[in-house]
């Protein structure tokens, strides 16, 4: 008997090819092209591919249009499709109401939510600050037997904390038979938002075995909000991570608190700590402070230079950024990709586009 072969037109083979293409997709333009091919084939009703499309559109496009398009093409969406759509919408604050609406729709259709559904629905309730909806979802969590699930319980703690219900958050936390670092961070975050009960938060923090940057951030934000940062005692390594994380918030008040705290508490100000401080102040727009700290770094490297150059360029100080860049070259410190991004931005702000293009050409030739 002649062995059976799978031809290139076989539906399953096409689905595998489409799945592989989607897995490798990194741009919205390519995603649209792959989606168009899927629609033209018999695969546009493949729920697995549709779920992947929804996830990719959510990550590659800021518009909900394409996610809606894929989801509504199914008259009877299954649990996986609902989960992917709810997850996609829950990640954008302006679409959280849509995520919750989809959850209500799936319940009405008799589709049973699972442990993947509830965390995203609860995240949406938290983003909308809708305590009543959160309590209702909590009731269904208990009724459907998902109260034991750690990610679901973590989402409940987080939701109650963000809705200002610290006691409820603590109750869910205390009832958990198993906890992870996310559980602790969720409760620490609940304490930190109002800067209240920081003594209890400190006890909780000290009992944690796996503290991470999020844990430290929560404690520092909590003490800043309460007006007392003294109880927090991280070392230089931890402080570097905390400062780097806080830099992403762009809050000048926190930047000033942390800068004062590092000085006041005598934390070792090595190159890494000072570079992190330069980056933090630069991202918060406090360029005078960033420049002052930069000058105190005894052995400047590509990271400290790049942090200052990028900060100066981002805040319209193009000429100053280029001066620092020339100083970097004079000290024989080799620029990296981040440095050049800052330099090109500086050239644009300073009206030196031609100089920027020349540097770009040089970089391409020397790479």
Q: Roughly what percent helix? A: over 70%
Chain-averaged pLDDT: 83
- Characterize the biggest β-sheet: none
Unreliable spans: 1-11
**Distance, first to last CA:** 58 Å
Question: How many domain units?
Answer: 4
How many H/I helices? 21
Number of strands: 0
Structural class, from helix and strand content?
Answer: mainly alpha
Radius of gyration: 26 Å
Q: What series of H and E elements makes up the topology?
A: HHHHHHHHHHHHHHHHHHHHH
CA-based shape = flat
Strand-residue proportion:
under 5%
Please explain how this structure is put together:
The chain has four domains: 76-173; 180-232, no CATH class; 233-299, no CATH class; 301-367, no CATH class. It contains 21 helices and no strands. The N and C termini lie far apart (58 Å). The protein is flat, with a radius of gyration of 26 Å. The protein has 367 residues and is mainly α. It has helices spanning 11-24, 28-40, 47-60, 65-72, 79-90, 96-108, 117-127, 131-143, 150-162, 166-175, 181-194, 198-206, 213-226, 236-247, 252-264, 271-283, 287-295, 302-314, 318-330, 337-349, 353-366.
Considering the chains and any ligands shown, give keywords for the structure.
367 residues, mainly alpha, 4 domains, 21 helices, disordered N terminus, repeat, TPR-like_helical_dom_sf, PPR_At4g14850-like_plant
What order do the helices and strands come in, and which of them pair?
Layout (H helix, E strand, L loop, with lengths): L10 H14 L3 H13 L6 H14 L4 H8 L6 H12 L5 H13 L8 H11 L3 H13 L6 H13 L3 H10 L5 H14 L3 H9 L6 H14 L9 H12 L4 H13 L6 H13 L3 H9 L6 H13 L3 H13 L6 H13 L3 H14 L1
Helix pairs in contact: 1-3, 3-4, 3-5, 5-6, 5-7, 6-7, 7-8, 7-9, 8-9, 9-10, 9-11, 10-11, 11-12, 11-13, 12-13, 13-14, 14-15, 14-16, 16-17, 16-18, 17-18, 18-19, 18-20, 19-20, 20-21
């Amino acid at each position: 008997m002649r062995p059976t072969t799978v031809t290139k037109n076989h539906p399953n083979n096409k689905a595998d090819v489409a799945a592989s293409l989607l897995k490798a997709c990194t741009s919205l333009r390519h995603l649209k092209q792959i989606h168009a091919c899927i629609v033209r084939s018999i695969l546009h009703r493949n729920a697995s591919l549709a779920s992947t499309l929804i996830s990719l559109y959510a990550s590659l496009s800021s518009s909900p249009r394409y996610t809606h398009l894929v989801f509504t093409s199914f008259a009877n969406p299954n649990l996986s499709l609902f989960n992917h759509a709810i997850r996609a919408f829950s990640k954008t604050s302006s679409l959280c109401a849509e995520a919750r609406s989809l959850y209500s729709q799936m319940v009405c259709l008799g589709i049973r939510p699972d442990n993947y559904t509830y965390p995203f629905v609860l995240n949406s309730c938290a983003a909308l600050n809708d305590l009543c909806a959160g309590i209702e979802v909590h009731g269904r969590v208990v009724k459907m037997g998902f109260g034991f699930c750690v990610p679901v319980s973590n989402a409940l703690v987080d939701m109650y904390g963000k809705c200002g219900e610290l006691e409820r958050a603590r109750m869910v936390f205390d009832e958990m038979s198993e906890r992870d670092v996310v559980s602790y961070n969720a409760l620490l975050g609940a304490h930190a938002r109002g800067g209240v009960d920081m003594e209890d938060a400190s006890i909780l923090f000290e009992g944690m075995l796996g503290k991470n940057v999020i844990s430290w951030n929560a404690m520092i934000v909590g003490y800043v909000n309460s007006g007392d940062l003294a109880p927090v005692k991280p070392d230089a390594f931890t402080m570097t991570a905390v400062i780097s994380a806080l830099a992403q918030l762009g809050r000048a008040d926190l930047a000033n608190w942390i800068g004062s705290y590092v000085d006041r508490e005598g934390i070792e100000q090595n190159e890494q700590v000072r570079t992190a401080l330069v980056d933090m102040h630069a991202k918060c727009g406090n360029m005078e402070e960033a420049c002052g700290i930069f000058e105190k770094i005894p052995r400047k490297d590509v990271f400290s230079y790049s942090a200052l150059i990028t900060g100066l360029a981002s805040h319209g100080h193009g000429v100053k950024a280029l001066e620092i860049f020339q100083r970097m070259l004079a000290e024989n410190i080799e620029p990296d990709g981040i440095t050049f991004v800052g330099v090109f931005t500086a050239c644009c702000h300073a009206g030196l586009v031609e100089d920027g293009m020349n540097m770009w050409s040089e970089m391409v030739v020397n790479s």
